[in-house]
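Re: folding output
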Amino acid sequence: MVQTQAAAVLEPLDDHRMDITFLAGESYEVAMRGHRVLVDQPVEAGGEDAAPTPTELFVASLATCVAFYAGRYLTRHGYSRDGLAVSASFDMATDRPARVSDIRLAVRVPADLPAARRPALSAVISHCTVHNTLTSPPAVAIDLV
């Protein structure tokens, strides 16, 4: 019943809509555009560690956005994406509120990318949509329905 009410309140503007449903324990399913993503918590946090945590997906969202922008740049300029990879790590804040305090991304560029192209690539990937959202945070409204 709550799900039906939420659907009525949150009319989709377009494809920017997701619904999250409780599964069991500490796991949830995210449904968007016909896709399904699971989230869970580690065992020490009461979950079954059956899927990434929401925080891990948050950091993965930034890393994959950077990879996407890097890939588009490489293709647009005639370079191969072979060897393109992004590694991400993060730290949690030790004070309140609970949050990610630091994110580190390492972008492995393809061997055929000339050194002279690296500054432009760096500029492009530093303006991916997720990074822009972190540097200019959106308004967040949370309503109980």
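--- second protein (sequence, then structure) ---
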Amino acid sequence: MPHRRTLAPLARGPHAPSRAALLAVLAAVGIIGCERSNPVTGPATPSPVARPPSGRLLLRENIITYEGSGQIVHPDVVFTPPGVFAHPWHLVLTPYPVAMGAEFENPSVFESDDGTRWGIEPGVVNPLALPRPQSLGELNSDPALLYVAAVHELWLYYRSYRSDTDFVWLMRSSDAINWSPPELLFQTLTGGAISPSVVQSPDGHFLMWTVNGHCGAGDTRIELRRSADGLQWDPPEPVTLGGFSPWHVFVRWVSSLNSWVMLTNVKPAKNTCLTKDLWVAFSDDGVHWTHGDHPWLSAGQDDGGMFSSVVYRSAFAEIGDSLRFWYSGATTTVVSYTCHRGEMMCQDSVMRWDPVGSEIRPATDILPRPLN
């Protein structure tokens, strides 16, 4: 069993965004980031989701990011068996300071003993990956974390992109501290591999759900790729999820519900990726999905007001018969500043991406438990 380490304190980085940058409007958030199928083994499709509670008080998890803003997006969480690593909980996310997401949206990792208080393992240097300087205009986004039990490793998948191409990369770690250099797995046209969510099925095969589309589209879609080793991936196959345009996805098998469960935020219209609603969907095969009539969480629905303007890509983990959720999103704030044309005070509204909000809910809140 590894020696248990004490997490390093979270210190504010020296490169906090400038005042001028904080005043820019985050208009391109989504762009920056912002048939027959082989079934995935699973039981019958469960019944539709019930309406969730109308309001909830989410726990604010203040995580200071490497550039100092504490504004984050796209959490992905993994719980590993006790004793494999120094800490069982692992969280990957990207900073998204107002108007500077493109520059700082690089995968960063944190650890925890209880899934609530997050720190940085001594020896870890965030961010784990930066854009390739030789690839003109390339930026990072959308990390996904996976524990591969057969090799006792954490695998970090993430997307990078430029004007014409999406790239999907893999980094690996056997100690949650030291990470292998990024390995390019595949590439697509831009918008063809948004928000990868990767799992390993009980038979050992790897599955990756991604979104195909772009911020200006009103008809985005989810696709599924399969792999025997998590490295070589088959071409994507279409996924059925009717009724709306998904934007970023997270998928896990939930044993207490006997179902695949997906979280996806949904584009409200063309030409915007400031998503207002987070939906939950269910599947017996990972390909054909059903959802209820109501979002699981909508902007302004949390009593704390953290996500009053945007509910974005979120994640969950199964804890016994409950699910713990980690939400990301933003508020709109009014900022006063000095106009360039004089000394008069002006006001402007900007997006501020909030710390992760989390909650634990019994699985029966999500879906009635199947009868034995």
